[in-house]
């Protein structure tokens, strides 16, 4: 599915418990938010945006006050319902930061076949040697001298020295419902698509671009 970058409204569930927290991720490119079938700025068309968020924690004054168990979420911009996570602390907690991994840790990568969002049938798993794909960004740009001007960035793996797992820590506002912006322009600004447009395996390039991908996430103050 192709994504037009236009306004996308995320709705918060009215069925939350008082202590529940909703964490919504809003992807966009240079002020335009993702929605199917529109070309974005710079003549870039995003067809696929999928990524893993894992090991979600809430912190207060630098100390963990909530840690989600079995914390693995596959977010897919083509499926808006996957772009919001609901955290369920046992008791009401106060927090001023959220912390999570972009990708899947090495222990989980070597744990064998998993279910749920980690099911290989989800299309985010290479092989047991290469592990999970942490993020997929696919689309097209006239800058790409490839078939149909396509680009494909599959960033993942887990083996040293090129483990691309990234940890993101963001300061949060006081309310329980948090909107995390995902600005893809921060990713593409470090890439020359005429020269770099195809990564399909772990390695140095995947690790470098994973570092750029982590910088896409921020919360507006």
In short:
With 221 residues, the protein is mostly beta strands. It has helices spanning 106-109, 185-188, 204-214, and strands spanning 3-5, 21-29, 32-36, 45-60, 63-67, 72-76, 84-87, 97-102, 133-140, 150-156, 166-171, 178-183, 198-199, 217-218.
Structural description of this entry:
This protein has helices at residues 106-109, 185-188, 204-214; strands spanning 3-5, 21-29, 32-36, 45-60, 63-67, 72-76, 84-87, 97-102, 133-140, 150-156, 166-171, 178-183, 198-199, 217-218. With 221 residues, the protein is mainly beta. Strands 4, 5, 6, 8, 9, 10, 11 and 13 form an 8-stranded mixed sheet that branches. Strands 1, 2, 3, 7, 12 and 14 form a 6-stranded mixed sheet that branches. Strand 4 (45-60) and strand 5 (63-67) form a beta hairpin. The two termini are 32 Å apart.
Order of helices and strands: EEEEEEEEHEEEEHEHE
What would the average pLDDT be, to the nearest integer? 88
Low-confidence stretches: 4-16
Number of E-state strands: 14
Number of helices: 3
User: What would you report as the Rg, rounded to the nearest angstrom?
Assistant: 17 Å
What would you call the shape? globular
Give the CA-CA distance, first to last residue: 32 Å
How much helicity do the residues have?
under 10%
* Main sheet summary: 8 strands, mixed
